[in-house]
Specification:
- Helices cover 59% and strands 13% of the residues.
- By secondary structure, it is an alpha+beta fold.
- The protein has 5 domains: 191 residues, no CATH class; 115 residues, no CATH class; 159 residues, no CATH class; 76 residues, Threonyl-tRNA Synthetase, Chain A, domain 2 (2-Layer Sandwich), CATH 3.30.980.40; 211 residues, Phosphatase 2c, domain 1 (4-Layer Sandwich), CATH 3.60.40.
- The strands form 3 sheets. Strands 5-14-13-10-11 form a 5-stranded antiparallel β-sheet. Strands 6-7-8-9-12 form a 5-stranded antiparallel β-sheet, covered by helices on one side.
- Strand 8 and strand 9 form a beta hairpin.
- Helix 15 packs across helix 17 and helix 20 crosses helix 21.
- The model has no long low-confidence stretch (mean pLDDT 80).
């Protein structure tokens, strides 16, 4: 089955454009000099089909050609196509790429031009006898075309293989410009200067629209060369067109086109255009109106695609590739380390105490049998009656109670055993050792559980970091370019601009010079991204260069208030609070009430808060944080426990994740509405296991989150009395709120603090 290949329309268009260029190059000189031979050689060297290009070369030679010129063109086409065909076969067979044969064929083709082409000598502005001869001029022209073939080869290779793919070298740009200048001369001579003007104005408009910078002036300068060479048209005219188009392009395609037409008609006034005959006036006018109209009617998606391709072509991507590769490598490594900690957690969790307990019971049974049963004369009779099984039951009861006596002896064992006192004595002695062993085993199990919880928390942190680092930097070259232009307009010069991160929450990094106003930089960035941006970091690189990092400003900001009083007669308060920033968009607020009052309670509370701060800064999950702290507190030989309120608040959306462990009621004050936050959990450090639940609330502008220690809540008769008191205190200023609340609590105590008292308030408000 033969699969039909799809038609390559781009290649067809390519051959058509080269055919047009071959045609125009035929008219560069007055004698039909074969400048198109240079292009024919360049297309063959670039890998295009030599036969198609040769056929096109021959066909474009037919108009206005004598029979001798047609034969000469046919011979030149056959020679060059044969040269490239043989070269390709040699390259395929021997793996080499000889270039001698095509150059030889080009030389023979030019020799045919020198020997046989009709030629009228050019009148030169200087008198040199040798150069006035037709043959000498043909030899010089042939030599120039030979050199031009090398120039065109570089230009065509760059256009076909590198254009809009990577940056072109300086010599490539020069050679491409020379190619277009010669083609432009041919257009002026074959069509007309007016036709060339129309094509040039359209390309200046298109180039300025795609680049939106002063590089369009370079394009205008190159396009000014052909009419200058053909009709001595001053190149300053194209420069004025270019400046006008660049200035007005920021206002849109219509504005730029109209401005260009205005300049054209202004030049027409000074050129006497309006005195021309109607046919000449129409031709000249259409040379400006048609390109402007065509440019305005171009589809917007086509313009955007051209802009994106040109921007991508002009950008350097290697730095982004390197950054993304390093991020991916770091992410993979973090994920592997996360898996290691997950395996550690699984291993510790699998090491339970059941096997150790059963082994200990088996050992106790064996020891009692050896010490009390086997020396007994009734041992064999007891075994036959199954009393050994009753002994195992007695051991189980002993392990549960810690000690056994006569009332614990099973009936079967009591009926058959004649030395129960010896059995009980031996068993109780073994149970004493068993209690010590099981205490050590349980402590080891608790330690393993703590390490397993820590390993799980570290695994979660590393996994989140791995996911965060593995995400590649997205490319926002259009936004980077727009920001660079906006900063330049504001008088801030940046050598580099990088935009990365989520589209809704971008991060900007830029390198600037001098004593640039960082507030102005933030203002320009905010205007460009239609969101408030703030300076996150300012890193000095040299004395006059620094790196500025900007991030999206959070929607909310927060104000805090805290009021506290220690219990009367105590040297220290057992209440401790903390307000820390987890990252740029979240913060944690916590209140810990240690057991009792005084120095010991203060140490418990401070330890709890310190652990909370460390774990939350490390971005460990809340469940792992609180369960780990609970384990650490239960390890203490003394009674150590703490009541804890924790809230993690997101400044972007106002979400508050709140955990209450054994703490008294808290409140969310939202205007005239008061929400009560209650806790059903015991304090930290009482139970070995803890499974805290997180409740999420959405705080709005001017909402206040209020945490209280039991010293404050205990001052009021009930939650209802506290609720009534809060309704009568203004909540706009969080510090005023906690001060007045503490003042009311002290009044309720009769002016003497009967317990440690702390009130902590957080109010959200919209960031400026």
């Amino acid at each position: 089955m033969t699969v039909k290949k799809p038609t390559d329309y781009f290649r067809i268009l390519l051959y058509f454009l080269f055919g047009a260029a071959l045609l125009f190059l035929r008219y560069v000189g007055n004698n039909g000099e074969p400048f198109s031979l240079a292009l024919l050689y360049a297309t063959g060297a670039a890998g295009l089909s030599p036969f198609v290009c040769a056929l096109t070369f021959f066909l474009v030679s037919l108009p206005q050609a004598t029979f001798a010129q047609v034969l000469l063109a046919a011979g030149q086409a056959v020679l060059l196509s044969a040269g490239f065909f043989v070269e390709k076969r040699l390259h395929t067979r021997h793996g080499k790429n000889p270039t001698f044969l095509p150059l030889l064929c080009l030389s023979l083709s030019l020799g045919g031009f020198v020997a046989f082409a009709p030629f009228t000598p050019y009148v030169l502005p200087f008198s040199v006898a040798f150069l006035l001869d037709a043959l000498a001029q043909k030899v010089l022209i042939a030599a120039f075309i030979f050199l031009l073939a090398a120039v065109f080869s570089v230009a065509i290779n760059a256009l076909l293989k590198k254009f809009l793919k990577c940056r072109l070298k300086g010599e490539e740009l020069v050679f491409i410009s020379l190619f277009f200048v010669l083609v432009g001369v041919g257009i002026c001579r074959f069509l007309s200067v007016n036709a060339y003007m129309g094509i040039s104005l359209f390309f200046i408009l298109l180039f300025a629209c795609a680049t939106k910078d002063a590089s369009a002036l370079v394009c205008a300068f190159v396009l000014a060369m052909p009419p200058m060479l053909v009709v001595s048209l001053s190149p300053e005219r194209f420069f004025v067109y270019g400046v006008t188009i660049v200035l007005f392009m920021k206002s849109g395609r219509l504005a730029a086109s109209l401005a260009m037409l205005a300049v054209f008609f202004l030049y027409g006034y000074f050129d006497g255009l309006y005195l021309y005959e109607t046919s000449a006036l129409v031709q000249s006018t259409l040379s400006a109106v048609l390109p402007a109209l065509l440019f305005i009617l171009l589809p917007s998606p086509l313009i955007r695609e051209l802009e994106n391709k040109l921007v991508i072509y002009r950008e350097k991507h290697l730095s982004r590739v390197a950054i993304n590769r390093n991020r991916a490598a770091i992410g993979e490594q973090l994920f592997e380390i996360s898996s290691v900690f997950r395996e550690i957690e699984t291993t510790f969790a699998a090491l339970g105490t059941t096997e150790a307990e059963e082994s200990a019971k088996e050992y106790i049974r064996g020891a009692v049998l050896e010490e009390a049963c086997k020396p007994c004369p009734q041992y064999r009779a007891c075994r036959r009656k199954g009393a050994i099984n009753d002994l195992a039951r007695l051991v189980d009861i002993g392990c549960l109670k810690g000690k056994v006596n006569l009332i614990d002896v099973p009936t079967g064992l009591a009926e058959s055993c004649i030395s129960q006192s010896n059995v009980l004595y031996a068993l109780n002695r073994q149970l004493g050792d068993y209690r010590k062993y099981m205490t050590e085993t349980e402590n080891a199990a608790n330690g393993r559980a703590l390490l397993a919880g820590q390993a799980q928390g570290v695994s979660e942190i590393l996994k989140n970091l791995a996911l965060e680092q593995s995400e590649p930097l997205r490319i926002y070259t259009d936004k980077e370019r727009a920001l660079n232009i906006a900063l330049l307009s504001a008088g801030i010069v940046c050598s580099e601009v990088l935009v990365y991160g989520d589209e809704d929450c971008p991060t900007l990094s830029l390198i600037t010079f001098g004593k640039a106003d960082v507030k102005k930089i933030a203002a320009v960035a905010s205007e460009q991204f239609k969101t408030s941006m703030i300076i996150s970091e300012r890193i000095s690189l040299t004395s006059d260069k620094f790196c500025c990092i900007l991030r999206k400003k959070p929607r909310y900001d927060a104000a805090f208030g805290v009021a506290s009083a220690k219990k009367a007669g105590e040297s220290a308060s057992g209440d401790t609070h903390s307000v820390i920033r987890i990252d740029e968009r979240r913060f944690m607020v916590a209140l810990s009430d240690g057991m009792g009052s005084g120095e010991y309670a203060r140490r418990i509370s401070e330890s709890t808060i310190s652990l909370l701060e460390s774990f939350y800064r490390a971005k460990m999950p809340s469940g792992s944080v609180l369960s780990t702290i609970n384990k650490l507190l239960t390890f203490s030989k003394e009674e150590t426990f703490a009541c804890v309120d924790v809230a993690v608040i997101d400044l972007d959306n106002g979400t508050a994740d709140i955990v209450k462990i054994g703490s008294p009621v808290g409140f969310i004050l939202s205007g005239n509405v008061v929400k009560v936050l209650d806790s059903e959990s015991l304090p930290l450090g009482i139970l070995d296991s803890l499974h805290p639940e997180t409740a999420s609330y959405e705080l709005r502008e001017n909402d206040v989150l209020l945490f209280l220690s039991d010293g404050v809540t205990g001052a009021f008769g009930s939650t209802t009395d506290l609720y009534d008191t809060l309704k009568n205190i203004p909540a706009h200023n969080p510090q005023q709120l906690v001060d007045l609340l503490l003042e009311n609590a002290l009044k309720a105590y009769g002016g003497v603090a009967k317990d440690d008292m702390t009130a902590l308030a957080v109010r959200l408000f919209k960031a400026a």
